[in-house]
Structure formats: structure tokens, C-alpha cells
Design goal:
The protein is of the alpha/beta class. The chain has one domain: 3-Layer(aba) Sandwich (Rossmann fold). The chain contains 8 helices and 7 strands; from the N terminus they run αααβαβαββαβααββ.
């Protein structure tokens, strides 16, 4: 799959399935200062959808701590703060995207790293919730990162994942139902339970989002 639909005339249009992760990061680095404006121009509603979906489940907005994975320039944090959440950290492999987010004071802590099978330098049970908006795309996050996401969330906390519905079948790493199969396997092993799966229109104009919310059990 070549490029991100609706961003084909920007640097993000260079993204493609199977490319090396350092190439993907370089593209996001190069586009960091234009990203917010381009998303606004394209009516990108993913961050708002993700924040609103989490807010339905996560209780105390003043004290709950959130890690925004694949945080980018911080658009999800903007929406979370609008809803009253105050403690939000960022994790993203693009340092320039995080630098832009820092310039806007969007997070409390900025962690530059990939998430995968590697153990991050973050303690177990550090957060009440993890959000992932737009991280499950080509050349980025893969199903094998889910156990690490779960490790970071306290039992009873939540994981909210928002992505384009079409990516579940068109991105190589997820094709054949592999992303949802990995989610289901972790549920069968007692690590988490699905509390919501919604198909929502308007992620971009004419593009649906699928929003997963899981409660961590382990």
C-alpha cells in the first residue's frame, strides 16, 4: 500500500507498506511542522474520536494518567485536554514531532522511542490508560506491540486504539485479520477484555474509523 490516502501530495505520501521504520520516522520528522495544518485542512477527526471514546470509560479526568502512544505532534492530547484530562505523556519515535508538541506544551513528559516487542524504559502499571490514534498504519506499529501496551496500564485501566477501518485489511501486517486476532488471543489469555468496538464515519471525509476500547485485567 503506497502512501497515506488524502496526504499523497505531501511528504506523508511517501509512506508505503514494508518500508524500514527509520525511513518512516524520517518522513514524519520532515513533516512535523506542517502536520497540524494539513490535518486541519483535511478534516482529520481521529484525535477527537479517540479522546471521546476513552472519556466514555475512564473515570476521574483530573487524576487519571494517560500515555499517548504514536503521539506525533500531540493532536490527541489537545482533544483529551479539552475533555478535562490533565496528566498526559507522549511516546513517539519522531523526535521532531515531539519537539513540536513540546513547543505547544501539549504533554507532561516526552518519550522518544519505538514500541514493539522491546521493553520500554517505563515501569509496569504506570498509567490509567493508553491511547493510540493513527499508530496502526503501514511501516509503524504492529500487533506484537500489544503486550507491551498492556504492561504499561494498571489493572482496571483502558487501552483505546483508533485507526482507519480499511487498514485492518489493506496493511500487510494486519491483513487476514491479524491485528484483531492478536487482540482476541490476549483476551483469551486474560490480559484484557474488549468493552467496545465501534465503526465510526468521518475519520477523514468518506473514511470510516474503527475504535477499540479494552479494559486491562492482568
Amino acid at each position: 500500500m503506497a502512501g497515506l490516502p488524502l496526504f499523497e501530495k505531501t511528504d506523508l505520501g511517501q509512506l508505503r507498506d514494508g518500508m524500514a521504520k527509520d525511513e518512516m520516522v524520517a518522513i514524519y520528522d520532515s513533516f512535523s511542522e506542517q502536520y497540524d495544518e494539513e490535518c486541519a485542512n483535511r478534516d482529520y477527526a481521529g484525535p477527537r474520536m479517540c479522546a471521546e471514546a476513552l472519556a466514555k470509560w475512564l473515570g476521574d479526568r483530573k487524576t487519571s494518567s494517560i500515555l499517548d502512544v504514536a503521539a506525533g505532534t500531540g493532536l490527541c492530547a489537545v482533544e483529551l485536554r479539552k475533555l478535562g484530562f490533565t496528566s498526559i505523556d507522549a511516546l513517539d519515535p519522531s523526535q521532531r514531532s515531539l519537539d513540536y508538541a513540546r513547543s505547544k506544551n501539549r504533554y507532561d513528559k516526552y518519550i522518544c522511542d519505538f514500541i514493539g516487542t522491546n521493553r520500554l524504559d517505563i515501569d509496569d502499571d504506570s498509567y490509567d490508560a493508553v491511547t493510540v490514534c493513527g499508530g496502526f498504519i503501514m511501516a509503524a506499529m504492529e500487533p506484537d506491540c500489544l503486550p507491551e501496551i498492556i504492561r504499561l496500564v494498571r489493572p482496571g485501566g483502558y487501552v483505546c486504539i483508533t485507526t482507519r477501518d480499511m487498514y485492518l485489511t489493506t496493511v500487510k501486517a494486519f491483513s487476514g485479520g491479524r491485528l484483531e486476532a492478536a487482540m482476541t488471543e490476549l483476551q483469551s489469555k486474560g490480559f484484557w477484555e474488549q468493552v467496545s468496538r465501534e465503526l465510526v464515519p468521518g475519520y477523514h471525509p468518506g473514511i470510516d474509523a474503527v475504535i477499540f476500547v479494552y479494559r486491562v485485567l492482568r
